[in-house]
Every structure is written in structure tokens, then in C-alpha cells.
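Recall that a protein's primary structure is simply its ordered list of amino acids. Everything else, from secondary elements to tertiary packing, is in principle encoded there. The following example makes that idea concrete.
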Amino acid sequence: MYGYDVPNYVREYERQWKSYDRFLRVRRSLDVPGMYVIERKTRWVHDYDFRRGTDRQVQLKDDYRQVYKVWPNELKYVLGSLKAHDVQAHGGAKALADRLDAMEDKEIELADRARRAETEALSGEVYDHFGWIEGRKVSVADTIR
């Protein structure tokens, strides 16, 4: 995959990406030699001086935004990553936000439940300890048979 064949591989990968999203393009990075920049066409208004040759200025001039910046050996992972991070594939932004909120609520509930269980166990031990100090009969076994 390295050497003179890299442009051929890049073109093959770019065809795959364009079949998934026709607004994607790939080009060599101006900021980091050897890296490739995967960009997506956007519509945005900009007022910027385009004299210097950096990746950001090329993107502003051509109305593109950076999606990924990858090394040549990472090109094979881009399509899978695009599919995994596609908001529309998850049912849109609202559905994704609702799913993330539900996951967060579940994590909070599990943490609260663990905290309550720990508190109940500790208070039970304290109760048993005070009972033992007062002379009450206290079970030392964890389970009763």
C-alpha cells in the first residue's frame, strides 16, 4: 500500500466514500506532509483572507469542512468510521440525543443504586456492631441456612 501505489489506493477508497456520501473529497494535507484530509462540502458564509496555503484556508476557499485527517495506512478505516458516526443512520439528531439521554439516566440510576446498596450494607454492619456491644445476639454468618 505504500510507495507509488498510494494514489491508486486513495482513488479506490475515495470511490467507496463517494458512494456512501457524494459530498466527500480527499486531498493531501498542506499542514502535515504525508497525511490525507477527508473533507465534506458544506454551505457556509465566510470572509477570510486566502493568501496563505494552509488546510483551513483551502477548506474555506472551497467551502469544505474537515471530517478526518488520516495517515495512508488508516485510509481503510474511514468508511467504517463514517458509517458508525453518521447521525442519520441513528434516526436523526433528536433520536440520537434521546438515546444518549436515556443511557445517561441509566448510568446515574445504576450509580445511585450502588451507592444505596453500599450505604445499606454499611448501616447494617454498624447496627450489628452496636448490637454486639450492647450484648444482643448478632448473627456472624452472611447467610442463614
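The two ends are 67 Å apart (CA to CA). The first strand starts at residue 24 and ends at 28.
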